[in-house]
Amino acid sequence: MSSKPPNILCVNPFIHDFAAFDFWAKPLGLLQIAAVLRKHGINVTFIDCLDRFHPKEKNKQKIFWDGRGPYRKKIIGLPKGIENIHQRYSRYGIEPDWLRGDLEKLKALKKVDLIFVTSLMTYWAAGVKETISIIKQIFPYVPVVLGGIYATLCSEHAQKHSMADFVVTGSGFKNLNTIIKDYTRFDMGFEYDIDDRDSLDDLPYPAFDLQNKIAHVPILTSIGCPFDCDYCASSYLSPQFIRRSPESVFNEIEHWYYKHKVKNFAFYDDALLINGENYAHSLFEKIIDSNMEPWFHTPNAVHVKEITKKTSELLFKSGFKSIRLGLETIDFKDRQFDKKVKEKEFYAAVTNLKNAGFKASQVGAYLLCGLPGQSLDNVKNSFLKVKKNGIQPTLAYYTPIPHTKMWEKAKKYSKYDLEANPVFTNNNLFPCVSEKNPTKQIAKIKNL
Ligand code: SF4
Predict the structure, then answer these.
(1) What is the pTM of this model?
(2) Where are the domains of the chain?
(3) CATH fold of the domain at 7-184
(4) Rounded distance, CA 328 to CA 274, Å?
(5) Is the pLDDT of residue 130 over 80?
(6) What is the pLDDT of residues 278-303, one digit of tens each?
(7) Which of 222, 225, 305, 306 has the most ligand 1 atoms within 8 A of CB, as the residue to mutate?
(8) How many CB atoms lie within 10 A of CB 109?
(9) Residue from 249, 189, 243, 242 nearest 218 by CA
(10) CA–CA separation, 134 vs 31, rounded Å?
(11) Which class is 218-447 in CATH?
(12) How far is the CA of 90 from the centre of ligand 1 (A)?
């Protein structure tokens, strides 16, 4: 075993897609791993291919009031199999030459022992491959380990096509120590018990400070989900629902707010409000009683059922600026896939939020669109009904995801061979909609 800590490079890859935008998105898992490595004495460098604040960025990238903003993009050719789609397809992120330059600079500075690359959407596989191919040009002999969501859900595809030397599935922490030992002969003595209820509280905060600028911070309060919606891979990715303590979440918010002047925070957990009396309420009360004035956002949906009068008031007073409700469809008689919302619960949630002080423009409801067998008329009706309730309907395009309950049905309905290439699962292709011109029809609904 070596006693000298290795140098590890962590890379967030490019996105190849029809559209992409920084909705408070950050490679949370990778930055959490970076924080663990750093805590154990390992030298960590982070390169973010989606960096909106790269030093070479001449066009001042627009920062919205809430920290969001567009990525740099360059139009690239459409992938094989969808060449005839009349839509633009782009690489989102920094210029490939900037990435090469950053890698060359790092190579001149130090010997890199191991490279970690993360991955998110399954249909962004080509962006991962392009990133690794550039890394391999500069560091041909340094092992590249790929982890993250695409690597877990499409591990065979990733092993065959990503150019990574090793593909990790599931939690990145599970075998972290073994991977480091195998590749660098350094034992950092890190052990992580995924089933331990306190495991999340014991982790250091994700290393957001390795970025060029911290425009916002996504806060993780839990992993997994107590629900098991047919279209969602949450239970496959994290079979256990484990929460951090409200104190630990509050301390992290304080840390970024005071030490790094972060104003905008995003909660991505769908389950944030579950059992609110015993969890989120105490977190929100702590924030209200503090001297902080952060702004919070819920880009993923929160559970409608949990939006009580008390919860709505606490959400409003603690600084939530936008609330997204997970609705699926407003056709309550025919809720096929997601049975966690009842009609009266939805109407009560809207009333509670409005009474607490939220403006209609701050509240939105996600309506799923493009599910296998779903008619676009159903989507249109739901859209109009939500609008009538005085809140914003937002269409969430369905992505077929391997290892979900709906995957087999999606394959049956799809006009593409979903197993052949994850690019065919891109939700902008509406792969499971059998009606003609879905893009045009959905644009019409959105114009309503
Ligand atoms: S869609 Fe949301 S509520 Fe349903 S299983 Fe996934 S994370 Fe949980």
Answers:
(1) 0.94
(2) 7-184, 218-447
(3) Rossmann fold (3.40.50)
(4) 18
(5) yes
(6) 999 999 999 999 999 999 999 888 88
(7) 225
(8) 10
(9) 249
(10) 21
(11) alpha beta
(12) 29
